[in-house]
Amino acid sequence: MKQITKTLKYIRCATFNSILAATVIGLAACGKSSENTTTNNTVGGSTGETVKVGVLHSLSGTMAISETSLRDVLLFTFDEINAGGGVMGKMIEPVVADGASDWPNFAEKAKQLLLDDKVSVTFGCWTSVSRKHVLPVFERNKGLLFYPVQYEGEEMSPNIFYTAEALNQQAIPAVDYLLAAGKKKFYLVGTDYIYPQTTNLVLFQYLRSKGIAEEDIGGGLRKEGNKTIGAGKYTPFSHTDYQAIVAEIANFSAGGDACVINTINGDSNVPFFKEFAASGLTAEDCPVVSFSVSEDEFRSLPTKDLVGHLGCWTYFMSLDTPANNKFTKSFASWLADTDVTGIKKEDRVTCSPMVLSYNGVYLWKKAVEKAGTFDPTAVMKALEEGISFDGPAGPVTSQKNHHLTKNVYIGETRSDGQFKVVKSFEKVYGEPFLEGTFK
Amino acid sequence: MRNLGLIIPLLLAIFGLPAVAVSESIKVREKLAEAAISSEEKQIQILESLIESGDPFIAKVLIAWRRGELFLIEHEGSTIPVLLENADSKEPVKAFALKNGKVLNGKSGKKLTFVPSQQKAAETTRNLRAQIKKTTDLLAILNPNPKLRAEAAFKLGSQGKPEYLTALKNRETVEDNPKVLKKIKEGMAISQLRIGDEKQRIQAAVNLGELRCIASLDSLERIIREQEKLTKGEKNIDLIRETSKAIKIIEVHKDWVNKGQTVFRGINYGAVLLIVSLGLAITFGLMGIINMAHGEMIAVGGYSAYLMQKWMTGFFGPEALQWYFLLAIPFAFLAAATVGLLVERSVIRFLYRRPLESLLATWGVSMILQQCFRLYFGAANVQVNSPDWLIGSVSVGDMSFNYNRLFVIAFAAVIVLGTGLLMSKTSLGLSIRAVMQNRDMAASMGIRTSRIRMVTFAFGSGLAGLAGCFLSQIDNVGPEVGSKYIIDSFMVVVTGGVGNLLGTITAALGIGTADRMLEAWSDSPVVGKVLVLSAIIIFLQARPGGLFAANSRSLD
Amino acid sequence: MQLTASRLLMSHLIALAVFALVTLALVPLIYSSGGIANHDIQRYGKYLCWAALAVSLNLLWGYTGLLCLGQCVFFGLGGYAFGMYLMLNVGVDQVYKTALPDFMDFLGYTELPAHWKPFESFGFAVGAVIWVPGVMALIFGFLAFRSRITGVYFAIMTQALTYVAWILFLRNEFTFGGNNGFTDFKKILGANLYSHPHTSTNGKELLFFILSALLLIVTILLMIALTRTRFGKIQRAIRDSENRVRFSGYCTENFKLFIFTLAAIIAGIAGALWLPQAGGINGDVFLPRESLWVVVWVAVGGRGTIWGPVIGAILISALKSWAQREYENTWIIILGGVFLIIVLFLPGGISSLGKKLLGWIRICRSRTENFITNRKKKVDPNGDGEETLQ
């Protein structure tokens, strides 16, 4: 009996509570409805003196490591454009939303940017999974997204423009370089998600087409019948212990002429390279070419262990061109002056995804000016017709297939965490569909 | 002791550029200085001629050259090749002329200093780099350090070039270190396997089998593959037979080595688990607080190491990288303990009678701390360098043990021992145990329970800080460094039996070893982990209280 | 003046009726008149699903004393089961070359793996939404309860469970899309799942909102029923002292197993309804962090109350969604601070705020009527909710 009276005490105010719960939804709905009736429903509109532009990156959670830098460079670019008079006379008004490394949340925030804030264009996403989550949102609502990070390809959405490196602008040139340097054995290692899986599968096919034997491609193969559906060794996200894998690489490379193709994501590179260095392997015996390690990641890596290892990007901070010097200088002075909360001011660098974000904003500006409107469909059409921009890493030109023609650089890591360019390829055409094309 | 014998030359090899500069013969120096400013053809010629001198100093200069750390400075009207005191420095540093090893002086006799990044580095062309590599390779088998010599001998052999084979043969006659001798033999055998005539190749295969040379497996297997492609008449049956035999012997040997390595990896992974969960064994195990902020205390430790490194290198220059870590250890403990103290006073002390809510409150604390790290240190991870004495490995037979992994085990042993002694031998430990077992009784005996709990929580947090400081050597330092380990830590404490340090130790080592063995067996880190966690769930079926459950007659 | 049981029942039912009226009549009405945008009704639908998830955890934690730190395992399993059906109905797209789910296409699969085939049937998928989480809970619960794993041990074990699920589902070889997971759903039973263009209402957004509301109403009815039946009394008795119940001759394991499975099924259905409204799912739904959020909803709302979890889930989610846009750098600190304060100063959660307020109001009112009688019956705000865990 005592139990019942206890419970009764507990829920004495049930009526109050339940009405509270019911009205939360009701109120929210009513609030929204009044707001919605007063604004028009066209996406891509701009009102008054400003044009709204969305920024959708993770500022918290695991991906914040990489994505906050992109937020910073975007805000910088907007200020730079605004200082020069804006886009078609309108000032850019950024709307920043935190994706919070939570993928359904990316979709929700994308919807809000498109439908509530009515942004003309969105710059955002880093991981493939976040892009996959917002893709249907942009397609259904006829939005426009600029995606700046190297990715696996096999995709061409009508509403996404990929300033990112396609596989033939990063992985393939890097492998070509290694083949030319006389490497005969390739060990593939990556984090288990779609980018490394697809990249390694494409590279496997490419290497086979170049006459490398299956036994000389390390890390393991996965087969369905006779067809190889997976190549390489994969570790889960945030994996910290690479002893076994590095030991395997040491065995693999003992015969000489070996190299490692590294698609390990973000922070797992630190334990990987620490283990690699600790076990006595060096860039001379067995160079590692990494596709996810840029200058920004070097900030947290023990660079003296990394000297001589390779990177392949479409931009390096160390490029000694007037355009790049101007870019790095103005970014540095903007960082020093900015008062936006959460922006770190010391030890900042620039890297390829940042520059591709920067290029994206300018390409969008030029496309808007060419189309004469902020309407995403018209802007995309203008982009498809080909727009060029002289970016920090040289000229980039938009292509009909929503990718960019750009220069590709291969660099060797220096002890100061910068790359020394050892080879460059001019104006490489971005080709997203590669899987199954090498025979 | 053997480690020390290796560490010192290693240290010298990497950091001793200016230090040993004086002892080198002037002739070698002059030649090098001449090479630095010559044409490519002449450069290659000079390097070729330098090989026979066997002076390890040449290799150091050449490596610096290849890295772009040999600088050309315009001085008094001529171009002088110099080495800088520290090529990574952002501050001006002294320059040593390559010609004579002397510090470059200005007109007034004042020492000149230069900022490395603003100086012109000596260029290297592709051909020159190839020659540099060849020269350093050949010089390496003359290196006074036997470990480096052995490595070099093997590398030379595996390149399969006749001139290297000759160099090895010459060296074999004078070499007296048995380890190096073995490597030279292996290298020669591999060379012969590639470039020798049929008879030499068969003999080489037999030799490799006898030497149990794991690294030659690849070459041997290539022989088999090549032979299989040939027609029946062309095949060399003897070679195939001997090679297969050798492969079989080596495979068996390799299997054993791998097993040994796996056990070692298991033990050191267990030690890592032990280090990260020891703090939790105190805060959760002894105090009963479901401490979700444990991971952030680990992060505090990691950031302490980073700060200490920043301060010390800022103050004493880059040499501090070698010893800052020793200071970082106590600092990390104190920093994390202080944070723990603040958290205990402001939040946890209100929740001792509501343990489940401590889970929620500490999770809130952990979210807040994590975002604070992100805002203060930036979202990116920070860079923490390892001292050189933690890089490298010592090998026993074909098994190699990395110094940092050996250090884990020692570190774990020390902190466990320290904690154990504190708990069992000091009056503070006695009070802690009393309060944790029965607070009211302890209070009535005159122990100030509130203060003891404060100290205990701070101590547990400090241990987590130590873990973070240590993790900075093998892992990232970033906002989320600790939260990765939190589940593992809880599993260790629960499996060991809540409130029992011995249980924690056994569980950590057991889980670590099992995990690595299953990883090796299944060839996948994920499968290993899933199997271990499933095994723990099943294990707790049998022993719901963990390995060392406290016996009690009380119910609920 | 105690509320009688029947008056209490009445007040619950009235509240439920109000809730039903708002969600099943008012919101659809505004929606069809164009007052609520498609993406907003999806967001409200998601909140309702989360509320149902919170109620299912409350059934375990609030009423039975079993703290499950892995409730999202069942939520996610339900979502994945239904997602498999939706993925198979994406069809041949202009980008994807085959009718296979996109990730299989990437990895060069040429045909559907055998365990995917039954999910082409809608009926099977809906069935799986119920039985997959159910069977999972039955197995795990059987193992856990049989050996009397309770309290903290149970909490940590369930956290390990969700961790295992996380690393498994992120694996590409596990054939559930790895880190990319399931996205870009298009059709359900041949009809368009989402409105196109976005201003029209020819999609199924409203339907899923109503289904989510119905799920929540049914689970709350179930809760109300449980507080009144004999079963519910035993359940709460287990929370307060399991051993006494056992000594009274009840097999507490079976009770707990039943409740655990029931809660898992509710969570699974909530997950399935959540998925089309969220637009995608990947392994991160199994992150321990996600399940901890559910615990926070329940604790903040008020555990062991009928409406607390609903309030907690909706308020916290709405606050989070709002703050992520307004305070993109500091929202975590704000949220963490909010529930630190609630845990420290309002142990009964937001529901007890109402109770406290009502208590004060009643005191003021009755003071004018009869000062002395009320003083004896003054409510102790922290008198209950004793921990059963140690």
Walk me through the structure:
The complex is a heterotrimer of chains A (439), B (556) and C (390). Chain A is built from 13 helices and 17 strands. By secondary structure, chain A is an alpha/beta fold. Chain A folds into two domains: 2-165 and 321-406, Response regulator (Rossmann fold, 3-Layer(aba) Sandwich); 171-290, Rossmann fold (3-Layer(aba) Sandwich). In chain A, strands 6, 7, 10, 11, 12, 13, 14, 15, 16 and 17 form a ten-stranded mixed sheet that branches. Chain A has a five-stranded parallel sheet with strand order 2-1-3-4-5, sandwiched between helices. In chain A, β15 (394-398) and β16 form a beta hairpin. Chain A is globular. Chain A starts with a helix and ends in an 11-residue tail after the last strand. Chain B folds into three domains: 4-128, no CATH class; 141-235; 257-391 and 401-551, ABC transporter involved in vitamin B12 uptake, BtuC, CATH 1.10.3470. In chain B, the strands form two sheets. Chain B has a five-stranded antiparallel sheet with strand order 4-3-2-1-5. Chain B has a two-stranded antiparallel sheet with strand order 6-7. The longest helix of chain B has 50 residues, at 237-286. Chain C has two domains: 41-345, ABC transporter involved in vitamin B12 uptake, BtuC (Orthogonal Bundle); 352-378. Chain C contains 15 helices and four strands. In chain C, the strands form two sheets. A two-stranded antiparallel sheet of chain C has the order 1-4. Mean pLDDT of chain C is 86; it is low at 379-390.
Brief characterization of the structure:
The complex is a heterotrimer of chains A (439), B (556) and C (390). Chain B has 556 residues and is mainly alpha-helical. Chain B is built from 21 helices and seven strands.
Q: Percentage of helical residues of chain A?
A: 40-55%
Report how far the terminal alpha carbons of chain A are from each other: 79 Å
User: What's the number of extended β-strand segments of chain B?
Assistant: 7
Largest interface, C-beta closer than 8 angstroms, per-chain residues: A-C, 85 and 94 residues
Instruction: Assign an overall shape of chain B.
Output: flat
Order of helices and strands of chain B: HHHHEEEEEHHHHHHHHHHEEHHHHHHH
Low-confidence stretches of chain A: 1-18, 25-45
Going by CATH, the architecture of the largest domain in chain A would be 3-Layer(aba) Sandwich
